[in-house]
Structure to design on (573 residues):
């Protein structure tokens, strides 16, 4: 008898295959006293070395398969292995208590994990996950119970597990791993993001898939609707095979639009651009027919390392993207660190409300030398393509003017040095703070463009931390309040002959696209894999009808009413 589970569709597509129950070995340890301390320390060193070699291999494979942004996860894991605070604490415990290394490692790992998890900071909580992942690997070598390598699978399977760590997902071979399902996780978890990059169907957060699935039993994963069928009937298999074929046909149809312009049914053109983190992401940008890069997140250059990147390192990365896009626009965001992204080597103070604190442009304006280095690299790279600069989290005109003055100052210095640099390039801001949206008419007189960062704009407008599951119901992109702020920004830009884009998740959202088209958004920037579906959707939309629906949506009272309006007018057609 079949059983249906519901979870979160983390990566679109349909997968049908046998289940491979991914269960970790029993790594339970017992305390042993009076041990040979020297022998235990040698065993620990050997386990650390084996783990280091494995992680280097996984990092290299990830770099080749998925690019630098994803490989940085393993740079963080390697840093844990060489962190004297952690490793020396384990060794000291072995020596002081004369106990076995496996028990000492387990104790110290638990201590560190507890400390990091208790911090009210998403970045620090991620460090807890890093320590858990790394210590598990070292422990498996100490106990002689190696963790199963998913890279060695040699038949088509769907992986079923409690969760998949970054190490796990990096090893997935698309030839054999047709999809995966987990008990826990969300759309923004590491495993979900990597599944989308690999284009492997995935459903997460089912709560009970491991207890409901037998090893090698047949499983269907529907990453489109977020459903999982365990032990499907022949009828269900046929239904989902048809759905699978339909999805593949749809993808083939999308692919035909790769080199086509992004236009509505009544001929209105918009720009569909991609969000990227590293130059390695350009392959996906081109394969999916992006008309530009709407957001290059430069912080990934700064992460997973022990020191700030040099001007030359940054110049090469920015230049690679500018040249790689062959004259198409590339919007580069200056360093956006803080909130859920931190740089340990900057040694910044802990804050009660990091998302509302010392971050992004606020940090850059205070750490002026660091900011100037980035601005110089950007200006130099601007000589090699159609590069635009955008400052994040601008709250006041004074902040924009201060940042622009530093940019102009560095341009003049480069000119005096005789160094090639862009003489003119567009300079804009991200609109993430409600006050900036309200002041958009004043900003529009001084900036060259706006890019609306809806992920933060929504959480700041609704006063709801998007990382907090208990208030996740308030993360409402279709709220009339959000739509009215978006309209303010677009109208202000157009009144001064400027353009307005959007680089938050909302830009690629099927429900939001008709409304954004109707509001007059000029540029939609999204994950590369969302571009062709969005282009297809636009082809079936009338700008005139979308404008009428958007006007009506602005007058509605709830997010649900807005969704119902879009569903009725556009999605059901």
């Amino acid at each position: 008898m079949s059983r249906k589970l519901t979870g979160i569709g983390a990566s679109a597509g349909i997968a049908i295959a046998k289940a491979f129950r991914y269960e970790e070995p029993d790594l339970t340890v017992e305390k042993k006293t009076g041990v040979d301390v020297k022998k235990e320390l040698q065993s620990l060193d050997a386990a650390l070395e084996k783990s280091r070699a494995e992680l280097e291999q996984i990092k290299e494979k990830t770099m080749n398969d998925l690019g630098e942004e994803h490989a940085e996860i393993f740079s963080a894991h390697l840093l844990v292995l060489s962190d004297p605070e952690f490793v020396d604490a384990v060794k000291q415990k072995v020596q002081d208590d004369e106990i076995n290394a496996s028990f000492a490692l387990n104790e110290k790992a638990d201590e560190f994990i507890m400390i990091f998890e208790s911090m009210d900071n998403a970045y620090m909580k991620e460090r807890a996950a890093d320590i858990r992942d790394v210590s598990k690997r070292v422990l498996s070598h100490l106990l002689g119970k190696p963790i199963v390598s998913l890279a060695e699978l040699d038949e088509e399977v769907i992986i079923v597990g409690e969760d998949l760590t970054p190490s796990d997902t990096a090893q997935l071979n698309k030839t054999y791993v047709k999809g995966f399902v987990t008990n826990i996780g969300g759309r923004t978890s590491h495993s979900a993001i990597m599944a989308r990059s690999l284009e492997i169907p995935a459903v997460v957060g089912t709560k009970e898939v491991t207890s409901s699935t037998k090893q090698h039993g047949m499983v269907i994963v529907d990453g489109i609707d977020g459903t999982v069928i365990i032990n499907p009937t022949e009828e269900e298999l046929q239904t989902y095979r048809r759905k699978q074929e339909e999805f593949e046909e749809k993808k083939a149809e999308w692919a035909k639009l790769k080199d086509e312009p992004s236009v509505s049914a009544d001929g209105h053109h918009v720009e569909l651009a991609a969000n990227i983190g590293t130059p390695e992401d350009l392959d996906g940008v081109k394969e999916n027919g992006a008309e530009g890069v709407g957001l290059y997140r430069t912080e990934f250059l700064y992460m997973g390392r022990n020191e700030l990147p040099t001007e030359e390192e940054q110049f090469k990365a920015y230049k690679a993207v500018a040249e790689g896009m062959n004259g198409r626009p590339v919007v580069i965001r200056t360093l956006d660190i803080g909130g859920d992204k931190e740089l340990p080597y900057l040694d910044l103070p802990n804050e009660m409300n990091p998302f509302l604190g010392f971050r992004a442009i606020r940090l850059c304006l205070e750490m002026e030398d660091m900011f100037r280095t980035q601005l110089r690299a950007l200006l130099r790279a601007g000589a090699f393509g159609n590069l635009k600069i955008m400052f994040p989290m601008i709250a006041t005109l004074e902040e924009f003017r201060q940042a622009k003055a530093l940019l102009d100052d560095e341009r003049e210095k480069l000119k005096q040095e005789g160094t090639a640099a862009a003489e003119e390039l567009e300079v804009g801001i991200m609109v993430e703070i409600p006050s900036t949206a309200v002041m958009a008419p004043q900003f529009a007189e001084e900036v060259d463009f706006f890019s609306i960062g809806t992920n933060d704009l929504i959480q700041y407008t609704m006063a709801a931390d998007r990382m907090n599951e208990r208030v996740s119901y308030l993360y409402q992109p279709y709220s009339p309040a959000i739509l009215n702020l978006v309209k303010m920004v677009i109208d202000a830009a157009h009144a001064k002959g400027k353009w307005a884009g959007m680089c938050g998740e909302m830009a690629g959202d099927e429900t939001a696209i008709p409304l954004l088209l109707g509001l007059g958004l000029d540029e939609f920037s999204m994950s590369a894999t969302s571009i062709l579906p969005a282009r297809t959707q636009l082809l079936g939309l009338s700008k005139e009808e979308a404008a009428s629906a958007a006007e009506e949506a602005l007058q509605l009272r709830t997010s649900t009413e807005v969704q119902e309006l879009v569903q009725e007018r556009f999605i059901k057609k």
The longest helix spans residues 37-66. The longest strand covers residues 14-21. Residues 265 and 539 are 5 Å apart (CA to CA). The chain has a mean pLDDT of 89.
